[in-house]
Amino acid sequence: MARSSLIPTQQNRTRTALAVAAIATAGTASWVAGRAQQAEQRHPPVGRFVDVDGVALHYLERGEGTPVVLLHGNVVLLQDFIAGGLFDALAERYRVIAFDRPGFGYSSRPRDRLWTPDAQAELLLQAFMRLGVERPIVVGHSWATLVAIALGMRSAARRLVLVSGYYFPTLRVDAALVAPVALPVVGDVLRYTVSAVAARLLLRRTLATMFAPEPVPADYVPMLHRELLLRPSQIRANAEDGTLLVPAAARFRERYAELDVPAAIIAGAADRVVDPQTHSARLQGSLPGSTLRVLPDAGHMVHHTHPADVVAAIDGTRAAVPASVTEFAAS
Q: How far is CA 52 from CA 57, 121, 173, 315, in A?
């Protein structure tokens, strides 16, 4: 009797726990969705849209002259280039176009394809044609360096500036951790619940790692708008790109010899996100005619801490090289 009487009690407790979990999940999802909606109402798009192959691609354009295209890395959006002053500095002499890559900022990311670097390059190539952009100088930061290289392989760029890039497959624990968030259904639940909470807890640490050894500028997060970075759509784009990073680098490793576009490679010697020797120095050895500039005491966000070096690379000139800076050209 005692044993059988416990069974309903255990079942009731299980049902109660499940009900509480369902309510908590629904409540968190509603809160996350509300925060995303508020963020978009308070911080509307800063640029225009071009519709390309079923994608609403958000971009900001300013200036005249030779076109320069700016492609941001993961976590951030196109305002990353505004926050560091690079966009405005270039707009004085160039026609500058900064894009939100698919799924980031206000660009859409349909699920009808895998958004590999090649797929993103194809989309941008069509956008170039729609916007009248002919063979621009393409600047890619971090993950977007692979998109820039894909554009170079299509002869769609006159010069590449590759900043803090990841170019060769290595073990990446972070890529494995975000893989579930990239999945349909399961990932959709996670990015409105667990991943949304985790992203808020980890954002400060993530940005600190990106900027290290320099501190995160005080106005950086306010300028990018924290809640825009934490929307479920942005979490999904981060997760999918993170999952694709290693296989994309593995695929590109065999194709670097195809690249016949001049490339300036820039990296920070103290980068805690991507090791400059494993990636930038090795890539420079694979690209005849390329240049490599490794900046001491600089981290992953070189375009913020050393914008003059990025501008010099865009100009196709060489800034004065201190004795502590490593710079050389591949033969």
A: 7, 12, 34, 29
Q: How far is CA 146 from the centre of its chain?
A: 11
Cα three-residue angle 49-190-181, rounded to 5 degrees: 70
DSSP-derived secondary structure for 3-28: HHHHHHHHHHHHHHHHHHHHHHHHHH
pTM of the model: 0.90
Rounded distance between C-alpha atoms, residue 107 and residue 51, angstroms:
10
Cβ contacts of 199 within 8 Å, gap of 6 or more: 229, 230, 235
Q: Which domain holds residue 216?
A: 43-329
Number of residues assigned to the chain = 331
Reply yes or no on whether the pLDDT at 325 is more than 60.
no
Residue 105 within any structural domain of the chain? yes
Q: What pLDDT, on a 0 to 100 scale, did the predictor assign at position 209?
A: 97
Longest dimension (CA), the chain: 88
pLDDT above 70 for 89: yes
Residue 11 belongs to some domain of the structure:
no
Report the number of distinct structural domains present in the chain. 1
How much is the average pLDDT of 66-90?
Answer: 97
| Rounded Cα distance, 308 and 102, in Å | 28
Question: 293 phi and psi, to 5 degrees?
Answer: -130, 115
DSSP 256: G
> Does position 19 have pLDDT exceeding 80, yes or no?
no
CATH of the domain at 55: 3.40.50.1820
Express each pLDDT in 103-129 by its tens digit.
Answer: 999 999 999 999 999 999 999 999 999
Q: Does 20 map to a domain? A: no
Alpha helices in 66-192 (DSSP H): 79-83, 86-91, 117-131, 144-153, 173-182, 186-191
- Please report whether residue 28 resides in a domain: no
